[in-house]
Design a protein that fits this description.
- The protein has one helix spanning 18-41; strands at residues 46-51, 54-59.
- By secondary structure, it is an alpha+beta fold.
- The protein has a domain at 36-63.
- A two-stranded antiparallel sheet has the order 1-2.
- The longest helix is centred in the middle third of the chain and has 24 residues, at 18-41.
Length: 70
């Protein structure tokens, strides 16, 4: 069996800049009312998908997590 060579080149990790942090704070402020509304009206298995042309409320009927490493 041949062994695979893994890419060992160091990659630069983007830093959390002031601009990025501000966007995260703005997003959190926008999302908070939706989270409160979801908690009042739906189960913890509900998701809201927001796209540029609309929004969808969806609930998982079943979910089985993938066991990694087994």
């Amino acid at each position: 069996m041949k062994m695979k060579v893994i890419d060992t080149v160091m990659k630069e990790v983007p830093m959390l800049t002031d601009d990025k942090f501000e966007k995260i704070e703005q997003f959190a402020e926008l999302v908070k009312p939706i989270q409160v509304w979801m908690l009042k009206n739906y189960s913890p298995h509900t998701k809201i998908i927001i796209e540029c042309n609309g929004a969808t409320v969806t609930t998982d009927e079943m979910f089985v997590p993938l066991k990694v490493g087994d």
